[in-house]
Amino acid sequence: MYERLYSMKKNIQVKRPEVKVEIEVRQGKEKGPTIVEAAKQERASLLVLGQRKQSMIRRIRTMWAGKRSQSRAVDYCIQNANCMTIAVRRKNKRHGGYLITTKRHKNFWLLA
Fold first, then answer.
1. Cα–Cα–Cα angle for 87, 93, 96, nearest 5°?
2. pLDDT tens column, 26-82
3. Cα–Cα dist 49/26, whole Å
């Protein structure tokens, strides 16, 4: 997983050297508050989070296990981060585009 992140960082630095990209690994009991606190400490101006669509079976398993879903962490970050926060999810492989969620827009379809 880290190889993919470092590859993305390298590509961004080659294409846009003025953009500062940092990769950090943090641990915490709850993902949302941990991410928000890290963004605050780093004085981030933009927080971009990936989102995956969960199948119904996976959602049920998560509920039965008493775990919090990833979407709750993303929603928490969108509502509580001090900086602009964007959640991105691929809409459809065949038709293209992405679903973008921010504090003001939920599941806004961006054709890119």
1. 70
2. 888 888 999 999 999 989 999 989 887 666 676 676 667 765 555 688 999 999 999
3. 15
Rounded to the nearest angstrom, the gap between the alpha carbon of residue 110 and the centroid of all alpha carbons in its chain is 16
* Domain ranges for the chain: 29-110
Q: Is 27 exposed, middle or buried (0-12, 13-18, 19+ CB in 10 A)?
A: exposed
- Tokens for 31? 């993902």
- Give the orientation angle of helix 31-41 with respect to helix 70-80, to 10 degrees: 40
Q: Do 39 and 83 meet the contact criterion of CB atoms below 8 Å apart?
A: yes
Element (H, E) at 32: helix 31-41
Nearest to 47 by CA among 89, 7, 98, 102: 102
Structure tokens at 33: 């508050």
The Cα 62–Cα 16 span in angstroms is 39
pTM > 0.85: no
